[in-house]
Amino acid sequence: MSAAERAVVAHVLERGYLSPEALASLEAEGPAEDFLRRLATALPARRDELRAAWQRALDDAPTLPPPSGALGPGADAPTLSPGPSVLGPVPSPSSPAHRSEPLPAVGERVGPYAVESVLGRGGMGVVYAARHTVSGRRVALKMLAADRVDDPSALERFAREAEATARLRHPGLVAVHERGEHRGNPWFAMELVDGRSLDRVLAEEGPLEVASACALARQCAEAVDAAHRAGVLHRDLKPANLLLTADGRVRVTDFGLARLTTASRASLTRTGEAVGTPAYMSPEQAEGDG
Question: How many domains is the chain built from?
Answer without folding.
Answer: 3
